[in-house]
Automatic annotation (TrEMBL):
Record Gene3D superfamilies: Nucleoside Triphosphate Pyrophosphohydrolase
Pfam families: NUDIX
Keyword Hydrolase in annotation: yes
Family (UniProt): Belongs to the Nudix hydrolase family. RppH subfamily.
First-tier enzyme category under EC: hydrolase
Cofactor(s) the protein requires to work: a divalent metal cation; Mg(2+); Mn(2+)
Protein name according to UniProt: RNA pyrophosphohydrolase
InterPro entries: Nudix_hydrolase, NUDIX_hydrolase-like_dom_sf, NUDIX_hydrolase_CS, NUDIX_hydrolase_dom, RppH
Motif (Nudix box): 48-69
């Protein structure tokens, strides 16, 4: 697995602060949703912005509920730093009005404590049209190419720790 993006203690101001969520079921599979805002068959783990004055952990739990309709999860792991990615030039002007170059993400692994029936992607502002559980090794192949190095870095960071937890 090639890891091209290192975690850094603090990203620059040109990056929007964001959390990424690896929600894991009892079998250790990760939750992914198909994006509604693209014509690509793009699947990703939940992610979202950190509000002013909000901790990254609080943002993770809030975003989980906002994006998949449940907060039934407990935080297992938090990345040691931030991993940033740049938006492709053709998206940069369209997304967030061109304010940021990309996103810097703090990643969390969470244990899902509910049942599949608790997941409801028909949220107030739906971001996903479908969802499923997948083997963690499949994650990089499902994400859009410009975010693939982020998923590879997260897997490289979390996998040994998740295995130590028996997941």
């Amino acid at each position: 697995m090639s890891v091209t993006l290192p975690f850094v203690p603090e990203p620059g101001p040109e990056y929007r602060r964001n959390v990424g969520l690896m929600l894991l079921n009892a079998r250790g599979q990760a939750w992914v949703g198909r994006r509604t805002d693209t014509d690509l068959d793009a699947w990703q783990m939940p992610q979202g912005g950190i509000d002013k004055g909000e901790s990254a952990a609080a943002a993770a739990l809030r975003e989980l509920e906002e994006e998949i309709g449940t907060a039934k999860a407990e935080i297992l792991l938090e990345s040691d730093g931030w991993v940033a990615y740049d938006l492709p030039p053709e998206l940069r002007a369209k997304v967030w009005g061109g304010k940021w170059r990309g996103q810097a993400q703090r990643w969390f692994a969470l244990r899902f404590t509910g049942t599949d029936a608790d997941i409801d992607i028909a949220t107030r502002h739906p971001e996903f049209s479908a969802w499923r559980w997948v083997a963690r090794a499949q994650l990089p192949a499902l994400i859009v190419p410009f975010k693939r190095p982020v998923y590879e870095a997260v897997l490289a960071d979390f996998e040994p720790k998740l295995r130590a937890l028996g997941l």
